[in-house]
Amino acid sequence: MNDLLTIKEASVWASEFLKKDVTTSNISYLISYGKIRKICDNGSSLIKKNDLLKYYESFYGKREIDWKEQLGSDLNWHLSFDYLKESDTTKHVHRLHPYKGKYIPQLVEYFLDSHTDEFKKKKS
Questions:
Q1: What is the model's pLDDT at position 110?
Q2: Angle formed by the axes of helices 7-18 and 24-32, to 10°?
Q3: Count of CB atoms within 10 A of residue 62's CB?
Q4: Structure confidence by residue, pLDDT tens digits, 54-100
Q5: Which of 56, 82, 84, 85 is 20 to 30 Å from the Cα of 91, by its Cα?
Q6: Spatial separation of the C-alpha atoms in residues 71 and 74, rounded to whole Å
Q7: DSSP E strands: which ranges in the chain?
Q8: pTM of the full predicted structure?
Q9: Are 28 and 13 in contact (CB under 8 A)?
């Protein structure tokens, strides 16, 4: 049973593992969208720690490597905003209805602010 975590325990474990805040809502989202499996035990929801570990290991770090293999090394991974929580990238309006043309507000901010990085130097 050590391998099974409650949603609260999973959020604490994931926060420590990723070194960023992972809320119980984040874990519930993963369950709702089938990213990790829920095991019911007498009315409480449990998840396997190993399932959570596999999800986060495949999601963080490996995604950048996989995409760069597919698209080439000139891919600007900073524009993926992979380091942000979903709530930071969707704001509150993107969950009101199932609009498929969503964009990350930080992307607009990135191009409108005055900072210059390698990507902006190449494109200007």
A1: 77
A2: 110
A3: 11
A4: 888 776 666 777 777 888 877 777 677 766 666 666 655 555 655 56
A5: 56
A6: 8
A7: 4-6, 39-41, 44-48
A8: 0.52
A9: no
- Residue in this structure with the two tokens 């474990």, named with its chain if needed: 13
- Other beta carbons within 10 Å of 14: 22
| Ramachandran angles phi, psi of 47, nearest 5° | -135, 155
Q: Any idea which residue has 């995604």 for tokens? A: 63
Q: Which two tokens stand for residue 71?
A: 């698209």
Question: DSSP characters for 17-80?
Answer: HHTS---HHHHHHHHHTTSS--EEETTEEEEEHHHHHHHHHHHTTHHHHHHHHHH-TT--GGGG
If you compute the radius of gyration of the chain from its CA atoms, what whole number of angstroms results? 18
Q: Which of 44, 28, 22 is nearest to 36 (CA)?
A: 28
Of 96, 124, 122, 92, the residue nearest 105 (C-alpha):
92
Is the pLDDT assigned to residue 29 strictly greater than 80?
yes
Q: Is residue 23 over pLDDT 70?
A: yes
What does the alpha-carbon distance between residue 101 and residue 105 come to, in Å, rounded to a whole number? 12
**Is 82 within 8 Å of 66 (Cβ atoms)?**
no
Are the C-beta atoms of 15 and 25 separated by less than 8 Å? no
